[in-house]
Amino acid sequence: MEKLKEVGRPIKRVDAADKVTGRAKFTDDLCPKPCLEAKILHSTIGNGRVVSMDTSEALKVPGVVAVFTCFDVPDIVYPVGGHPWYADRDASHRDIADRKLLDDRVRIYGDNIGVVVAEDTVACDRALKLIKVEYEEWPVVYDPKESLALGAAEGGAEHPVQDRKPDNLVAHTLAVTSDDKLAALGYSSVDDAINDPAYHHVSLHMESREQSQVHIETCTSYCYMENNKIVCVSSTQIPHVVRRVIGQALGIPWGDVRVIKPYIGGGFGTKQDVHYEPLNAWVCKMVGGRCVRMEISREELFWDTSGRQPKSFDVEASWDDDMNLHARKICAYSNTGGYGHHGHALVLNSVNSFRWLYHTQEKAVRCEAYTAYTNGPHTGAMRAYGVPEGNWAAECLMGDIAYDMGWDGVEFRLKNVYTDQFVDEFTPGGVIAAHTCAIPECVEKGKAYIEWDKKKREYANETGPIRHGVGVSFFVYKTAVAPFALETATAAVTLNQDGTIQLQMGATEIGQGADTVFSQMAAEAIGVRTEDVHIVSFQDTDVTPYDTGAYASRQTYVSGTAVKKAGETLRRKILDYARFVYPNAQGELTLEDGVVLDALGHKVVDLATLGLDSYYNMDHACQLHAQETINVHTNAIAGGCTFADVTVDMPLGKVTVNKIINVQDSGRLINPKLVEQQIHGGMAQGIGYGLFEELQVDPKTGRVLNPTLLDYKIPTMMDLPDLAADFVEKPDPTGPYGNKAVGETPAISPAAAIRDAILDATGCKFYVEPMTPQRLFEGFKEAGLI
């Protein structure tokens, strides 16, 4: 592997000192106080229509400035999913436009039907309680299959969730092995291949429930008007998208909106949606441009932002006696709730990852997916974007087969896992491909850490109420969203007077360390130390280069390509200027560690001297600057595995994770320390998803039953073991420095690995995640183990 100077250094985060000392300014820190406060009036029914609203008493509350209802806002629907906009010729790629600022059509419990603006939050709260609402209430449907069945009636559902979709179907897709390939195998369908009596066969049903991101900082923004523009300061992953959506929602030119993103206290996908910024901007405009702050509560975050979609999977497979998968099929149903948000893309990721992960020996496959509108809480992006759910389905299947056949689960998986020859036959242009694959090496490291063979022997014949087991799960993840969606980014670099570099990105730091790796990549491309790169750690859409934002593990891969290109351009400009100033320097000039060298390696000039000259040269003063925009049309498959060692107390329904390791194949690592940080955080979320976290919804009313941190359980430091992280570096030829996805991948496989370890310990198979104590207890009791 080529030796690089700055890329690969395990340096500290460039924002570390500001964050640990409290100097870092987040959205609410910057908000001018006092300011007006705005709070939302939420519906108290899960399906129906607002007939009337009486705000007279609310307006009498001292301090109340205005009350706006769903009957006051513009009749404009707009999209809120955080993806790029598309030109008219590609309009089919646009996010679904099905939201209004406020709406008289209630689709979910807690829907936004009004807003109070007041001098303080106390006045807001008092006024909200005095608003009288009359509803026309309709039955709630929460189950996606039931919703689709209602929509299949003649003329569609009586009360469709979205009027433009009377069938309640967001989308349906199917990918299936071609008839020609099936005919060559002697089959007329994938079902024929699965049910071939020459092979073993299994049919399973799995479910995954809604998970909330639970980031520390809730969704917060404040808006004011300046120079005839609406300025929105927001805690968002996607500032340029927020600017566009505010313009769309208010029906004003996008250039009349300015969005600023300061430091952000976590997002994990929630803030890849545009939640309250358009409403805040409209309210600001309605009160004459005064500053209005809108900060939602933790409870609102649970029920009225977008968590991980709940899904169900029906899976079948056939295989032979030599551990070869023969055929598989999956049919998935996804519940998007009352609004589209990210719509069908999430379950597509689920079934695609199911297909990609195990592919080598498979002869036939069928992947089908439905996304339904329901009256459940709206859902959207969460870390790994649908893949943990698909991984759950794939690994429950592989774990069951290995257990029932008496095979080693690692060997069975390795026999069928994708290789570096994998190219997805269903993706246009073969863009989804594994140019490199280090899964076997990852597995070797994971097995050694968990002591797989030794523990398998030690735990084999345990009896009694407390037992131990080891489990494994593999995973696969694409990098970025090409070829399914636009991938573009811009980076700007400038030589300062003192020879340091100014770096400005449209890509966003949301806690994952993006600013640090961008600084390292810029330093590598230019030929300076990372310590001499100053990155602007906030985005301002009036001056910041365009980038679609933080999602899909795209930024180091896509935005990093723009950084590298801009850095290389600036490097050439610096050397050209040095040649102009020092025409007698020998041979080709190079730039290393901030020093211009001649062909013999002798110092010509340092950047501090050259930078000062470039600004103040009497005859040729110039600011050496480069800005580059790129479109990325490639993709790269990342992968890896999780190994877990658990103790299962069956009477208590309690699982203790003793040891767990995640081993990543993410290409070249830009900063190994940051990768380790990412892996630890992702593993914690994956453990929570497997054992604790479930947003519980009353199917009769659509109401979220546990919208507090008292009742929504996440793992704390007391619930987590020491989290081990390791990696195998094989540079990917498509990445700017051989890198590929790492930000979301660690969250994918821990849940399935723990499930596999529970199976190893007890012989009990669980198909619903999270595997809560109640579900575990019921499963052990049904199996006669307690």
Automatic annotation (TrEMBL):
Keyword set includes Oxidoreductase: yes
Claim: Oxidoreductase is one of the keywords in the record: yes
Start and end residues of each Aldehyde oxidase/xanthine dehydrogenase a/b hammerhead domain: 21-139
SUPFAM superfamilies: CO dehydrogenase molybdoprotein N-domain-like, Molybdenum cofactor-binding domain
Protein keywords: Molybdenum, Oxidoreductase
NCBIfam families found in the cross-reference section: PRK09970.1 (NF007426), XdhA_XDHase (NF043082)
Entry protein name: Xanthine dehydrogenase subunit XdhA
Source organism of this protein record: Paratractidigestivibacter faecalis
